[in-house]
Amino acid sequence: MARTTALVSALIGLLLLVGTTVHGQEARGTIETRVALDNDAVLVALLTFPPGSASDEHSGLDPELGIVVEGELTLVTLKGREVLGPGTVHWLPALTVHDARNDSDRPVRLWVILFKR
Would you tell me which CATH number, out of the four given (3.30.1780.10, 3.40.430.10, 2.60.120.10, 1.10.1760.20), belongs to the domain 2-115? Predict the structure, then answer.
């Protein structure tokens, strides 16, 4: 139960960050999160990033898998910048610092699966 509370708190914190000023500019949109499944083992959510939105730099307590459904997501990690298109699957180990961004003029939709420990 404590882990679920921590994950929900982290997700809410992420959503609050998206609505704040990013690098001196107003964020253009808020990331929409639709939770499809949340149990002791996994959290599965469909995220929609409006054009110009970003998660800001953060890390998760648990590993996560992202599957881009629509649009192009820019993922920035310590390894560099990657543009992920539809059908791309990306694995992020626990505690990986990253920033997910929509630098395009079209929405980005992706499934995110957080594997709870």
Answer: 2.60.120.10
